[in-house]
Request: fold
Amino acid sequence: MAVPSIIRRALETIGIEDDPTEIESLSGGCIHDVRRVRLGDDHSIVCKCSFDPEGANQLHSERSGLEFLASLGVSGLMIPEVLGLHVESMGVVLLMGWLEPGRACDGGWVDLGRGLAAMHSVDVGQRYGFHVDNHIGSTPQINDWKDDWVVFNKECRFRPQLELARKTGLLGSDENMLLDQVIDRLGDWIPARPKASPLHGDLWSGNIMHLADGGVAVIDPACSIGDAWADVAMMSLFGGVPRDCFDAYAAARGSDLHDMQPRLMVYQLYQVLNHVNLFGSGYLQQLTSLASRLLTF
Reply:
């Protein structure tokens, strides 16, 4: 089935009956087929399309994450508006409002740091998890509610990823032993009862979007409720986010990033383990290096 055909049917479900003037493929669609749909009067929307059951599940969980982040009402942090989710036997289309991209600037990074701190300060109760399971990349992510953050990380984060890596034969005996040691000692580095904060969950630089009007948006979430420093850890893992952003965040929260190093490394280790599962053994050296360093604290 041609992608424009399902997109046209998806548009009809949100009340758009006129044919698009243009349907343009967008970069960043490594998991889904992502299109910009141009309509009359210089109006555009984004359509993410999937044609297999697992991809459809990912779009359902992405919609839940976007709606959750938008519901927080954080000033200065833009979230793509969910316009609809079209489901049919041949595929699923997530329809979102178009945000006009712009160039990154120092002020935008500072605004992101402050906006993220404001998001993490929203009161969401004091349990850890989320109302639905979702995905981190294409990896399923369990979000069962827990009262203990260490237990949540052991049972809902590390052990499922470790089981997946073992099942596919990606880990040798040395890596297995090292990760078992880390999981057994998680309580040495992360608190059992940190303040519960809404998390984006996959906040690397590619999911941060600077806008033409000077604002900043976050996209492609893998939301949960947990320790705010998990988002900061992901932002600092693969680079691309300047110091100004972290300084603005730390100043807004009254915290010192340096004092959080072992805690950040735990959350980074989870993300790197997921990258091993997603992309293979090329991330094993980074995984073992992080785990070994953590065990020295």
Summary: The domain at 3-97 is CATH 3.30.200.20 (Phosphorylase Kinase; domain 1).
